[in-house]
Amino acid sequence: MNLRKLEIDAAIVRIMKAKQRFLHNFLMTDVTKLLQSRFMPDLSCIKKCIESLIERDYLKRDENDSKTLVYIA
User: Fold this and answer.
1) Distance, CA of 11 to CA of 64 (rounded, Å)
2) Would you say which domain of life the source belongs to (predicted)?
3) How far is C-alpha 50 from the geometric centre of its chain's CA atoms?
C-alpha cells in the first residue's frame, strides 16, 4: 500500500475519532487541511480511502443520512 494512502487513512481515522459523526464533504476538507503541509492529497484518493475504511469497518454511513459518516472502531 502506498505511504500516502496510509497517511490519508490515519488522518481520516484521527479526525473521525475526535468527531464521531461528520459530514463526508467536511471530512474531505479537514483531511486536506491536515495533510497539506506534507503533501496535497488527491480528492479521489481520499474518497477511495474513506470507502476502504468503510469496508474494513472503521466507518459506516449514517442510516438516515448517507452523507454523514460515523466512526465505529
Assistant:
1) 25
2) Eukaryota
3) 5
Q: Are 70 and 61 in contact (CB under 8 A)?
A: yes
CB distance 69 to 28 below 8 Å: no
d(CA 1, CA 19) in angstroms, rounded, equals: 26
Q: Which domains does the chain have, with CATH numbers?
A: 3-71 (1.10.10.10)
Question: Which residues fall within 8 angstroms of residue 26, CB to CB, at 6 or more apart?
Answer: none
User: Could you tell me where the DSSP H helices lie in 1-73?
Assistant: 3-19, 24-35, 43-55
pTM of the model: 0.93
**pLDDT, tens digit, for every residue of 8-44?**
999 999 999 999 999 999 999 999 999 999 999 999 9
